[in-house]
Amino acid sequence: MTKLLWIAPSLNFYKARFLNLLSKELELFVVAGKLHTKDGHAPLDEQLQFKVINVNAVERQFSWSPRVIFKTVMAIRKERPDKVLMPAEKKHLPLIIVLALLKPWLGIKLISYNHSHLRSNKSLKLDVLMTKWVFSWYDTLVFYTQHCYDFALKHHLVNKNKAHWVSNTLDDSEIKRLYTFNYPPAKNMGLLFIGRLVEKKRLDLLFNYYKVLLQDLPDLMLHIIGDGPMASMVQVESKTNPNIIWYGSLTDEKELSKTFAQSALVFVPGHSGLSINHAFFYGRPYVTFQSETQPPEFNYIQDDINGLVLQYGQDNQNLERLKELLAHPKKLQSFCEEAYAKGKQLSIENWVKKMATILNTSKS
After folding, report:
1. Helix/strand/coil for 278
2. From 92's CA, which of 57, 70, 135, 269 has a CA 20 to 30 Å away?
């Protein structure tokens, strides 16, 4: 059985859940950074099934800390894993370089689970050069989605022989146990926002669009799940309108399932991510905006099939699309069915099976 060190600069409860399941398929231990709860991350209260070596550094400091680098190298020397999974991201370059240089001495294979490429925020040409350089240090690269994998091969960022893809996802096992698929309620249905309350989520657009929708749909609710720096904005809005309900940071799936059942769709105008998977597991369409900064999971959305991809600067058209979807039960039900079908493809069972196969058999 392969022994794997998974380096997690931010070990949140989502990651902890799927690593618990992966630990049944291989010998796993984790070096984990400190969660920055002020940014809206929920405290980790998951019962862990694997060994964790904690380091006192939040994600943005993690790979630049000499203490973290030293502790990681010492953990590798002590535990002697066969492989080390270190995310290939620009913010982690110092630790990546150290691990790449020490690979022969430590006797490890270096693996990543990552985006299609590293971003410089300057030009695609620079991104390609930087990505090729970093990816060349790795023995195996696993991409978050097939779209990421295809992009990397198209731009010759990685040797095909060491490239794989496994759809990034969440642990849906508890949802399957608690929830039976149903359609949104005919009355008092709601929009649902779920995620950290940070600027990149575009809460300003959420509230602006909701207020316009209320003019035609006066019973429409707005459920907000999450916490973070913009909590005060949500507090103000929820006090002025009783139809806006803020739950704070909620991770109990039994409570989450009740809120999803009351919602017609999930609406996160800004940066999306794994909340797309969460919505699809419950059979709820996902609505967000097209943007170059959207994460890989954005490609799970099929516009006008299992969700809506809105365009910045087209508020009237966007609002009409939302009104049409909310006002036509048959169309909304079709979207829900498509979302639920996509959620089945993204199950944690499929993720564990595919990831374990790669990690246990990859010899590159």
Report:
1. helix
2. 269
Do 141 and 183 belong to one domain? no
Pair 183, 295 in one domain: yes
Cα–Cα dist 179/352, whole Å? 21
Q: Tell me which residue range forms the domain holding 43.
A: 3-169+347-361
CA angle 239, 245, 251 (to 5 degrees): 130
Strand partners, 112: 141
The total domain count for the chain is 2
CATH code, domain carrying 197: 3.40.50.2000
Same domain, 202 and 116: no
For residues 140 and 202, state if they share a domain.
no
Q: How far is CA 202 from CA 206, 213, 242, in A?
A: 7, 17, 21
In the numeric block, the tokens 């502790």 are attached to: 71
On whether both 146 and 290 belong to a single domain, the answer is no
One-letter amino acid of 182: N
Predicted confidence (pLDDT) per residue in 84-106, tens digit: 999 999 999 999 999 999 999 99
Mean pLDDT value of segment 230-251: 94
Distance, CA of 3 to CA of 17 (rounded, Å): 19
SS (H, E, C) 222-270: EEEECCCCCHHHHHHHHHHCCCEEEEECCCCHHHHHHHHHHEEEEECCC
Work out whether the CA dihedral 357, 358, 359, 363 comes out positive or negative.
Answer: positive
The 10s digit of each residue's pLDDT in 341-356 is 999 999 999 999 999 9
pTM for this prediction: 0.88
